[in-house]
């Protein structure tokens, strides 16, 4: 995992100490995310069962950055679909994955020799190091490696004239302090430097 070293430099410690208690002071650093890890949960199910008044609270708790866009997309998902002749098993209505992890989207087709196409936001996906296609018997699998926020989108699997739709939601894990600040002793007027490490490069922090 990549780490970013954060530096907080106080050129004139004497002026800073005037505002602190003579017996010492404490300087803390935290990321914008929560420091406690969250259990693996299905946010889709939580939102589906929750009243609208709780949506914003749930989004904040589980790191959903585009709640409005997500709800618009969820609203478009059909609750009931007509019986398919091309698919034995379609995609689930929605999937969730943590940023940086991989996910597999899988369907089962009626014809084991059928060719399928995978689309992302209406554009056909091409095989690459991050997108891998597999055909195992009747199963057709799309693997997305190292998911980023750009993978948060609508996906389709197309067989002939039939389509199976789903939504993928990429969740940002909380930013953690992996190496905390250490106590330092300096003389009045000297410069002091504080350093800590967080779990994500480029993370926004507050001193």
UniProtKB/TrEMBL annotation:
<dbReference type="Pfam" id="PF18362">
    <property type="entry name" value="THB"/>
</dbReference>
<feature type="domain" description="Ig-like">
    <location>
        <begin position="173"/>
        <end position="207"/>
    </location>
</feature>
<dbReference type="InterPro" id="IPR013098">
    <property type="entry name" value="Ig_I-set"/>
</dbReference>
<keyword id="KW-0963">Cytoplasm</keyword>
<dbReference type="InterPro" id="IPR040849">
    <property type="entry name" value="MyBP-C_THB"/>
</dbReference>
<dbReference type="Pfam" id="PF07679">
    <property type="entry name" value="I-set"/>
</dbReference>
<dbReference type="GO" id="GO:0005737">
    <property type="term" value="C:cytoplasm"/>
</dbReference>
<dbReference type="InterPro" id="IPR003599">
    <property type="entry name" value="Ig_sub"/>
</dbReference>
<keyword id="KW-0677">Repeat</keyword>
<dbReference type="InterPro" id="IPR007110">
    <property type="entry name" value="Ig-like_dom"/>
</dbReference>
<keyword id="KW-0597">Phosphoprotein</keyword>
<dbReference type="InterPro" id="IPR013783">
    <property type="entry name" value="Ig-like_fold"/>
</dbReference>
<feature type="domain" description="Ig-like">
    <location>
        <begin position="82"/>
        <end position="159"/>
    </location>
</feature>
<keyword id="KW-0393">Immunoglobulin domain</keyword>
<keyword id="KW-1015">Disulfide bond</keyword>
<protein>
    <recommendedName>
        <fullName>Ig-like domain-containing protein</fullName>
    </recommendedName>
</protein>
<dbReference type="InterPro" id="IPR052385">
    <property type="entry name" value="Obscurin/Obscurin-like_Reg"/>
</dbReference>
<dbReference type="InterPro" id="IPR036179">
    <property type="entry name" value="Ig-like_dom_sf"/>
</dbReference>
